[in-house]
Write a structure and sequence with these properties.
Keywords: DNA-binding, Transcription, Transcription regulation. One of its GO terms (molecular function) is DNA-binding transcription factor activity. Pfam families: FCD, GntR. This is GntR family transcriptional regulator. The chain has two domains: 13-80, Winged helix-like DNA-binding domain superfamily/Winged helix DNA-binding domain (Arc Repressor Mutant, subunit A, Orthogonal Bundle), CATH 1.10.10; 82-225, Four Helix Bundle (Hemerythrin (Met), subunit A) (Up-down Bundle). Helices cover 68% and strands 6% of the residues. It is built from ten helices and five strands; from the N terminus they run H-E-H-H-E-E-E-H-H-H-H-H-H-H-E. The strands form two sheets. The protein has a three-stranded antiparallel sheet. Strand 2 and strand 3 (75-78) form a beta hairpin. The longest helix has 25 residues, at 199-223. The protein starts with 12 loop residues before the first helix and ends in an 8-residue tail after the last strand.
């Protein structure tokens, strides 16, 4: 299983649990822990330099979020990607981000425009370098910036907590040919429309952009059938 540098050994209680939770969640969403992979409380505790108590608490929290599955007599496994959860996240994200875009129209200063264009330029550089991880972080920042410009930055945290399975699908798609270039082109249209005050153009592209995950999903399910579940089934890893 994936490992990490030890977290702050001085942390106890909720602080230790929260750090373990964040590390494990990131490893799951980034696919360093793959769907269906077995995880060990003891191995996690050793790799992170903490006791097993915060690990067990973090595992229960991640199980509640649908990212881990604890199977009696078998162990703890990374949950497979729920197709229903992907569609739910796409629905919520589209609703919130298009509303944010509408609120942001007319609020974009010259400084904000520079931030948007600089972000897209960095995305192009990440693509040229073949750095999918850097592109992913810049993509997150681009969409977070739109939320910030809407005047509702905390709405970003809402989308973050419900989009884990959607983000796992997005991570799977990034290595595919021309995917990054297409996503960046879409970002550019969204940004230009936002800067120019062209709501119709920007919103139409944002909807296409967010819905792209549903377009790529069948292809990825065919390529990685063991990573997905189409509905909640019996307790199985």
């Amino acid at each position: 299983m994936a490992t990490s540098q030890p977290i702050n050994r001085g942390l106890r209680g909720d602080l230790a649990r929260n750090q373990v939770y964040e590390v494990l969640r990131e490893q799951i969403v980034s696919l360093r822990l793959l769907p269906g992979e077995r995880v060990s409380d003891a191995a996690i505790a050793t790799s992170l330099g903490v006791s097993r108590t915060p690990v067990r608490e973090a595992v229960l929290q991640l199980e509640d979020e649908g990212l881990l599955r604890v199977v009696p007599q078998l162990g703890t496994f990374v949950a497979r990607i729920s197709v229903a959860a992907v569609h739910d996240a796409q629905f919520v994200r589209e609703a919130l981000e298009t509303a944010a875009l509408a609120r942001a129209m007319g609020n974009v200063t010259e400084h904000d425009a520079d931030r948007l264009t600089a972000n897209i330029a960095e995305q192009r550089r990440a693509e040229a370098a073949g750095d999918n991880e850097r592109f992913y972080r810049l993509d997150q920042e681009f969409h977070r910036l739109i939320m910030e410009l809407s005047g509702h930055p905390r709405a970003w945290r809402i989308t973050q907590r419900i989009r884990a399975d959607m983000d796992r699908v997005r991570r799977l798609s990034l290595p595919e040919p021309a995917v990054l270039s297409h996503l960046i082109d879409q970002h550019e249209v969204i940004a230009v429309g936002l800067i120019d005050g062209d709501r119709e153009k920007s919103e139409a592209m944002l909807r296409d952009h967010v819905r792209l995950v549903a377009v790529t999903l069948p292809r990825l399910m065919a390529r990685y059938p063991d990573y997905f579940e189409e509905s909640s089934g019996p307790d199985a890893p």
